[in-house]
Write a structure and sequence with these properties.
Length: 167
């Protein structure tokens, strides 16, 4: 997420807080404290506007992204699942070329004030249990391609944001 989008979102939420009498500044202050706590726990010391790019070879992708993003491609022969949480951030994960020995895979995607897009291999089925709250949680995979391949159990939520799964 670039700085212009970030400040645009902040200004919109200030307006919404005035309109609906929501204590926006208390909310933002709490998010900043949480963000600092996550940074201390994970030991991350790089810049504020960090974005993960490149190719990853992890079998299980687990990331918590606060005010940052991810734009990566997965390359593994034993994909086991993913757990992605974004707060004021987002990005895209291309897992379209992964393979697995498993028939069922759990993927948890949470986007709060941001968005995530996940690309999966063709032929994989998606059973979605996600929900959008003032946001969208969409399964846009090809419904006609229902081979007896791997089944993804997609769970999560999008709050003021969006999650999309495509193949």
């Amino acid at each position: 997420m670039n700085r212009h989008k970030f400040w645009g979102i902040i200004i919109i939420f200030i307006g919404l807080s005035v309109l609906f009498h929501f204590p926006f500044f208390n909310f933002i202050f709490a998010l900043i404290i949480i963000w600092i706590g996550v940074r201390v726990l994970t030991g991350r010391r790089h810049e504020f506007w960090h974005e993960s790019k490149g190719v990853l070879t992890e079998d299980y992708l687990r990331r918590v992204l606060v005010f940052s993003g991810i734009n990566t491609k997965l390359d593994t022969n034993n994909f086991e699942g993913a757990e992605l949480i974004t707060i004021f951030g987002g990005g895209e994960v291309d897992a379209s070329n992964v393979s697995t020995k498993r028939t069922d895979i759990d993927i948890d995607l949470v986007a709060i004030f941001g968005g995530l897009k996940l690309r999966i291999p063709r032929g994989w089925q998606v059973k979605s249990e996600g929900m959008g709250i003032i946001g969208g949680y969409d399964n846009n995979t090809n419904a006609s391609d229902k081979s007896k391949g791997t089944v993804i159990h997609l769970k999560g939520v999008a709050i003021f944001g969006g999650v999309e799964v495509v193949n």
